[in-house]
Write a structure and sequence with these properties.
This protein is mostly helical. It contains 13 helices and five strands.
Length: 378
């Protein structure tokens, strides 16, 4: 922390955007379920401290302890499998009193740092198959632990993020081509296989979610029910929405004269404060609220990319790209699920969905990006 930084290089606009988005998330969470508001406020406070603190630490110094971070990440993931809390048939959280830690959220930031470090150390060897195989093995270990929880959606999210970093890091295009040649037919075979009786690759609920996306009419009363209601909620908000906390039923002469009930009030979409927070935004703030939310997230991603473009070295550029990928992919998946353009899966909307661990980790990641900006070339 003894490196001299120029305050003019600190992206205060990005900080204000993140804080504004986080406060907007608290507003929507409070509307969806006030019981979660206080913990999210605490998460935003801790995340702000983490973001500012990490932004003042030279990311190159963090690389000195990268293998410690990597090992600690594996220990956390192992602890989840051994002593983690089971919720809905999955072990994804470590309990500490009244609080929970989702280790896979920590893993996202650690793996962004680790892969950025690895590529920096092997910058001139990224076109060698043995180097890529070594990197793939090191990435596969934590990913397999996350799959085991099971948490396939987070695993795929991390894979997309790391692939983006590796691609920007100088991966030979011939490998990209070869992977696509193999991956496309394998994906087709996979989709056919999971529809066969007694398949062993996916859990039944995972198969049902995929099938409800492929055949929505058939599953509209079961696994597709939640997404259908999410679309209904978003559409019902029209241009400006019904207003926050709008659940008014007024009576006159023993008859209901004004009904403006939200999907939230009728419990048609469960856990709206997390995976389906976008349905709250659409219903209560309408099309305008949705555009503002997407615009803020896009601004954060673009700022990360611009900072990465001006980074002082390759590692800084890769860190910025990795965090941009995290916000971009996760936002796309979350909104895609809420609008039924993707299969139903559980990923929070960055800075907005309930989840103190996710919020703190995302803001710590933004702290890394801010530090990259402090060391920019121009």
């Amino acid at each position: 922390m003894n490196r001299k930084y120029h305050i003019s290089n600190y992206s205060f606009l990005l900080v204000l955007t993140i804080l504004g988005t986080g406060m907007m998330g608290i507003m929507y969470i409070n509307s969806a379920n006030p019981a979660y508001t206080n913990k999210q406020i605490l998460g935003l406070c801790l995340g702000t401290v983490a973001m500012i603190f990490v932004s003042l630490i030279d990311y190159n110094k963090l690389f000195h302890y990268i293998w410690f971070f990597y090992g600690f990440n594996l220990l956390l993931l192992l602890a989840v499998l051994l002593v983690g809390k089971t919720v809905g048939g999955a072990k994804r959280w470590l309990g500490f009193g009244g609080f929970s830690l989702q280790a896979s959220e920590v893993s996202k930031i650690v793996m962004i740092l680790f892969v950025s470090y690895f590529i920096r150390e092997h910058e001139d060897e990224m076109d060698e198959l043995k180097v890529l195989m070594k990197l793939a093995l090191l990435c596969a270990i934590p990913l397999l632990l996350i799959v085991k929880e099971p948490d396939l959606s987070t695993t795929l999210d991390i894979v997309f993020i790391l692939c983006g970093i590796i691609f920007v890091g100088g991966m030979n295009m011939k490998y990209v081509r070869n992977v696509l040649i193999v991956a496309v037919p394998l994906f087709i075979v996979f989709m056919i296989y999971i529809q066969t009786p007694n398949q062993i690759l996916l859990k039944d609920y995972q198969v049902n979610r995929i099938m409800s996306f492929l055949e929505p009419e058939k599953y509209s009363n079961t696994t597709g029910f939640q997404q259908d209601n999410s679309i209904m909620a978003i559409g019902s908000g029209q241009l400006f929405g019904k207003g926050l906390n709008n659940n008014t039923i007024s009576e006159s002469n023993n008859t209901i004269s004004d009904i403006n009930i939200t999907v939230k009030d009728t419990k048609l979409v469960s856990e709206q404060q997390t995976d389906f927070i976008f349905s709250v935004i659409g219903e209560e703030k309408g099309f305008v609220g949705c555009v503002i939310t997407i615009g803020l997230l896009c601004f954060i991603v673009i700022q990360c990319i611009l900072i990465g473009n001006r980074a002082g070295d390759l590692a800084g550029r890769l860190i910025a790209v990795g965090v941009a990928g995290l916000i971009c992919f996760q936002s796309f998946i979350n909104i895609g699920v809420a609008t039924a353009i993707l299969p139903n899966t559980g990923l929070p909307l960055p800075f907005i969905s309930y989840g103190p661990t996710s919020l703190v980790c995302n803001m710590a990641g933004m702290g890394l990006v801010l530090n990259v900006g402090l060391q920019r070339r121009y």
